[in-house]
Amino acid sequence: MTTTLVRRATAELVGTAFLVAAVVGSGIAAQRLSPDDTGLQLLENSLATGAVLVALILALQPVSASFNPVVTLVERVLGRIDSVTTGVLVVAQLAGGLAGVVVANLMFDLDAVSVSTHERGGSGQLLGEVVATLGLVLVVFGSLRSARIETVAFAVGGYITAAYWFTSSTSFANPAVTVARMLSDTFAGIDPASVPAFVLMQLVGGAIGAALVLLLHPTPQEA
Description:
This protein has 223 residues and is mainly alpha-helical. It has 8 helices and no strands. The longest helix is centred in the N-terminal third of the chain and has 31 residues, at 3-33. It is globular and about 50 Å long. InterPro entries: Aquaporin-like (IPR023271), Aquaporin_transptr (IPR034294), MIP (IPR000425).
């Protein structure tokens, strides 16, 4: 493995860990601070997630800042990275997500791992995951094609904050985050039985998003 790939994998692992820690940690904090107001809990959770995404992408974009297997797979489809890099980065993202959820649980004096019992599913929420992931792919790669590449951080952070609210699934839109969230039986958790369908819909949304990116931006994308 080259030094460059090690650096990229490390950035993806650390970034995804912080993202999951923020999603789960802010969910736990929101649940404790606003125990009787689910809407306020979601607002607190979404604002923290959007803000941390902006910060992490700005900090790690010079190295690697996808934090999402779907985004990484779309990068492969668009020819921005090769297959070996894709595999290494996806593994790093999954490992980072698992590390992040453990840290979040421990920060709030919970068991390091507690399997979620929060069932999520149904046709509406599954469609929500397709829409959320499709939109995310369009925002990421559309922003990368702009004259100011730094806008991607603010575009992604803003989109995810909004998607928490306009999608029925509250926009997981990320297989690594989804897998990690099943290990926290808290506000942000997801029951393991719900995970395969969510991940499948995320992949479907990513595939549709990739097709639209190729249609809207036919010029080959540079890494």
